[in-house]
Automatic annotation (TrEMBL), chains A, B:
This is L-gulonate 3-dehydrogenase. It comes from the Bacteria. One of its GO terms (molecular function) is (3S)-3-hydroxyacyl-CoA dehydrogenase (NAD+) activity. Residues 187-267 form the 3-hydroxyacyl-CoA dehydrogenase C-terminal domain.
Amino acid sequence: MSGKVAIVGSGLIGRAWAIAFARAGWEVRLWDPVAAAPGRALATIEGLLADLEAQDMLNGATAAAVRARMNPAGTLAGALEGAAWAQENAPEDVAVKRSLWRELDRLAAPATILASSTSAIVPSRFTEDLAGRGRCLVCHPINPPYLVPACELVPAPWTEPATMVLAEQIMRGIGQAPIVMKKELDGFVMNRMQGALLEEAFRLVADGYCSVEDVDIGIRDGLALRWAFMGPFETIDLNAPGGVRDYCERYQQIYARLFPSMQRRVDWSGEVMDVVEAQRRVRLPAEKLQERQRWRDRRLMALLRHRRKAASEIGS
Amino acid sequence: MSGKVAIVGSGLIGRAWAIAFARAGWEVRLWDPVAAAPGRALATIEGLLADLEAQDMLNGATAAAVRARMNPAGTLAGALEGAAWAQENAPEDVAVKRSLWRELDRLAAPATILASSTSAIVPSRFTEDLAGRGRCLVCHPINPPYLVPACELVPAPWTEPATMVLAEQIMRGIGQAPIVMKKELDGFVMNRMQGALLEEAFRLVADGYCSVEDVDIGIRDGLALRWAFMGPFETIDLNAPGGVRDYCERYQQIYARLFPSMQRRVDWSGEVMDVVEAQRRVRLPAEKLQERQRWRDRRLMALLRHRRKAASEIGS
């Protein structure tokens, strides 16, 4: 399944979605309220595509072939013309979203699915008054979606079930791994789990139990080794002879005992940040942040190639 | 650095430690209150070593060479004779530990470090009254330590700083990645972070927001892809142009808003377990749990080989 997609907002997230759709064969039109932005995005995309081709991350297509599927659109109406999907990537501001979504709903054909990349605003807050609110949802990626498969499909109370079904199919079709939420919730799924873990990490450091690097060791060289190919539920399901119920009956009391000491929130930007920042800057000076981001992207692509190979040789 | 190590308790955890130490060149003596246990452990170890050699997880040594470094000990005193390190792997029962540790402290030479594999008991609870309590600590692995590098070094209030320094050196020497806690805390570091994440995962499923598989997607195909080579602090440090402080100033409000809705604990073994178990058993029937555990172990070894290669080619 492929078709036409409108990328609404052509910054960091919009251009990443453009690559994800075009790689899967979709015809992509990029629009932005700043007229020069789609052209700039396409120039950036050309560099990214060359890297992705070199890293075997284009499903065997050439960078040129993927690039040829993308065009700038001079108007929002032009971008939406004949689109099966519109992906909105505007700033995280409810007023901006409300105004833009009125336009999206007015201009897009009734069958076009309208999806927002927002990470922080539930869809009911900018779709309630729209005539076509049944075809509206959040589709929140982890950036960049052309590398990280997980994305969150979040319905407003009025999003039609058929919209969710089609959205899931389309996301699977372009190679994403969609989380299909049953109802909206602030933070969705991924930021809630990340938040829960980070709250404990900041508490541990603030209370002087361990270092920032110790937290990273515990996840990087410990828990995430299994999480990175199973997730936390399958991990515990395989960690007791009788599966997940057996695991919880054996070990829940350990976790239940810890819960009362997790009720206090530490201000991440408060005193503890001096400790966190100082320890991070010893390991990675500020002037090396950008270089390390490039290292991260290379490691991420290498890990994804490993997963593809392991899934094929050992099973997924 | 290598020497002699006493494995005290030769079950699942003890035999895994035996492999980790022997692979690094240590002379290993296995003892157990059940006289036949060390012999049985060594038979199991032989099978494990053959697999590990085939998977290139023995640092280039042969299974036979590693096996030759291990022997059963007929008495606890014999196991401890000349040992630089004793690793205790008794049941998670304070009374059992207290009694065993009195013997350990009485029999071991003053320079021997005494370490417990306990995951659930802080070291002060079984070392307070010991004459040699300054050389006692917890060294908690994620099983099996010969595959998963992270382990937690946890001092009692009276553990000597020099003991912690030497323990860290010894663990690094056998290829572990030690977390060095500054003071003891129930749950240590890893189970606290795993618990925080699981609490939120169970809440999301119990409240009907998403499925068990959705949670696993969010971690496996989302967050853990970066956590598995960076950890959560380095991940956020690289997720804003100005580093970790910049990240928290930009995004903390999103997480702070979620915190109040994370104060309610769901009983993991309560109603939600019917949902969790049913969904897991659809994906993995109970009779396939063991087969899937073997798949997990192969995938874990493949991931560890990938990390070694990626660290060498791209950097760590």
